[in-house]
Amino acid sequence: MDVVSQMKLFMEPRSVAIVGATRRTGPLSFNIVERLLDSGFQGKIYPVNPEADQISGLKAYPSTKDIPGPVDLAVIPIWERSSVPDLVRQCTEKGIKAIVVVGQGFADADDEGRALQQELLSIVRERGARLLGPNSLGVANPSQGLNTAFINVRMESLPIGLVCQSGLFFGGLPASALLGKGIDIANASDIHFAEALQYYEDDAETKLIVLHIEGVRDGRKFMEVARRVSRKKPIVALKAARTEQGARAAQSHTGSLAGRDDIFDAALKQCGIVRARDIDELADLIKAFLRLPLMRGREVGIVSTSGGAAIMAADACASENLEVARLSAPTKGGLQELSPPWMRATNPLDYWPMSIHSRKSAPEVGKKGVRDFLADHKVDAVIHVPGYYPPQDVSRIAKDFVHISEAFPEKPVCWWMSGYHAAEVTAEFESQGVAVFASCERITRALAKLHQRWQFLQSD
Amino acid sequence: MDVVSQMKLFMEPRSVAIVGATRRTGPLSFNIVERLLDSGFQGKIYPVNPEADQISGLKAYPSTKDIPGPVDLAVIPIWERSSVPDLVRQCTEKGIKAIVVVGQGFADADDEGRALQQELLSIVRERGARLLGPNSLGVANPSQGLNTAFINVRMESLPIGLVCQSGLFFGGLPASALLGKGIDIANASDIHFAEALQYYEDDAETKLIVLHIEGVRDGRKFMEVARRVSRKKPIVALKAARTEQGARAAQSHTGSLAGRDDIFDAALKQCGIVRARDIDELADLIKAFLRLPLMRGREVGIVSTSGGAAIMAADACASENLEVARLSAPTKGGLQELSPPWMRATNPLDYWPMSIHSRKSAPEVGKKGVRDFLADHKVDAVIHVPGYYPPQDVSRIAKDFVHISEAFPEKPVCWWMSGYHAAEVTAEFESQGVAVFASCERITRALAKLHQRWQFLQSD
After folding, report:
1. What phi, psi does B445 have (nearest 5°)?
2. Which of A48, A102, A151, B309 is the most buried (most CB within 10 A)?
3. What would the mean pLDDT of B82-91 be, rounded to a whole number?
4. Is A4 on the interface with B (CB under 8 A)?
């Protein structure tokens, strides 16, 4: 069986056995059977528990071998680490080829744990099965109603494929919902980033891949796969354990060897992987890569109803090595017609005085500003900071701006909202697909990464 | 009249004249009379407009001199810049000592504008009046129901004094409401940061001062006042125009000379002013300084239900030159009792396995962790990352944690929420005064600044 077929047993199983299913119920019961039913899994669910007849309304089986039909995926939520090897062996004897081990106390712990993890690995290798974990929440796939996490996880069907080493991400970072599919490789004794990437590589539902990395084991293999996959789909990575203090903590979390951060950074760049510095940036990059085109050059146009915001946007460009574009003469001329004589229409464009002088509404002048900037071949992306929009007009104004952006599909337009009603205006614009960010600094960080990927795709 | 008395005419006026009040009404009418009525101003309001008998239901006067009573504050919202000097002169002839000029086109524009601004300054100096602006939204003081902005501004009565050079902040940055009092010095032809700081210096309602700076004119005076005031109250500053590109833009916004950023940075530090790098950090520092005690050392305790989060917290400490505290032996011993034998209870504390092993609920183990860490003299601050809290228990759990924090009033406790229900849990904890931040990185940035201020106050 090739890797993708193996991974499909995890991600698209027709049947799941929970080996060591609990009889507890309700919140904080960590009942995976219940979670699977909640998430709407349509395949067969086989609870295994020698002391139960039924679990969450489903027939329970005393042991794995008693399950009547074939089983694609087994999840073992047992915390008594010494009993795990036997349970894994029983799964392989039943012919199960995909096994999730949930409990901790393996390579994340002590010498005995490391030996046990090694034993698990030998068992699955011998039978041609694959192991996810230990220390893993398993997998999630919203389009299958599949979620093997024992904690409550809200899922959203975004075209994102997540690979992580912590349940934190699985539980919904940077949002409070899992944004798409998820694979928690955790201790990564067997299935590592390379296998997970290969699953997402040609998965039609996945447009963007997000990695949370504590450490990489087989660096050469990882880079080979990552380089190939990132030609097809953007990969965004948050690397934790990037400092000595973090690396020490990672050792007792997933048993990962974090490696030197500068080497890691260079390796990610070489693979075309875009690195997020923190959770905020991860959220921004997810938004940017899902909603915006790549940025083809380094020239930014700033259109703002506030001079103060325009300055911050110019600062933010400089911080990310982006340029405040020099407009071409016709663009400046067209905007100068609306401006008071004492003001030069330029980039950044501070259009509040233009609105006062021309007696046109600020939204109208803003639209002209954004449109004219986008039409200028000297501009590669636009930052727009609007002012107050009357609540009854917000939806219509958003639509107008969406149309303007659509006419320039090769140039990202990023928004920063401020002031009165900002939350409501943001919600409406976001619902129409506009990319609104929390600050100019966060916009330019995202733009720089959209440009980084553009450059990567241009290179050989 | 001393500076504070002069500033009180702006901030606590008994009567306000709007010289050149518009007859338009509703949103986007920029009607200051209407805004003043909306904000609940209880003093006298005198609209001045030669073409109107009434404005927003109030008697209008043909000119300033026709106003019957004394006037503390005049606001001139006229955009025809050439007519402003005359209107200012009429105000001074009426004996008005506090004047806001709203229009642009002065030092922010061309030579003629600079000359006009100089003329305004001469007029007020001659009569012992003070000028705020030009290019200013004026002042706001929630406890007086006062807001002279012509745009819609929502006010919250937090004990914050803002001094800014852009209406953007006045309109509600980093929140979408003005958090306390506001003074928009804008072009700062006359009233500059030093005057505004002196007003807040002994104002009983102001506990924290926030500055948005594009440029400082009289650096020596500014530093002298700032150094004195920051001994009494924390001052947080966001410096815009910190790059060459930003400085160019600032020149045509408020006519500010931005100065070299490294010199600025050193000057701010010397004054004990805490600098925010961006809007996100400004929001975090406002929260930190209002809700948390200063941090007395550099040692951080990390208590987390997620090993992945603990690693990110350790990384974040290293980035801000904070230490992951080495716990004292009794603290470790007490926590080890709950831990599985294969796990060392240490800092960072990953308490999920402790909850499983000890069969105590995660919130209970979390409370013990936070309490024991705070009680350890080796720990100066705690970062807590909790897991899932059942909705019906959130309020009670928050109360318990508030009590724990209150027992250690000299140590900041910062929270990072994640996962399922994070938004709701955050809202409840925030409403009880807990300081919740958006990421570990943002926590350690805030902690570092709480420590910076502690060090400043220890120095001579």
Report:
1. -60, -45
2. B309
3. 98
4. no
